[in-house]
Amino acid sequence: MEAVSAFLQTYDTDYNLMAISNKTLAKLLAGKCKTFEELANYNFNPKKPIIRVLYKKVRNENRDQFIYIIETIFTNE
Fold this sequence. Notes:
This protein is an alpha+beta fold and 77 residues long. The chain is 31% helix and 35% strand. The longest helix is centred in the first third of the chain and has 9 residues, at 2-10.
C-alpha cells in the first residue's frame, strides 16, 4: 500500500486513492451505491482506515460527463 501511495505522489496519473470503512465497502460490494458521489457521501473517514479504493476519473465523451472506474480494492487484514 505504501508503494502505491508513493507511486501516485511521484508520478502524474489519473488515479486516486479513497480510504473507506468496512461498512462502506459492504455497501459498495452489495451494489447499494449507484454513483461514485453516492459512495463518497456515504463514506465516513474511519480513524484507522484499512481499506483503500484505487479509482480513476474518466471523461465519457458520448455523454459529456465523467465516469469513475474502480481499479482495485486494497485491504490490510
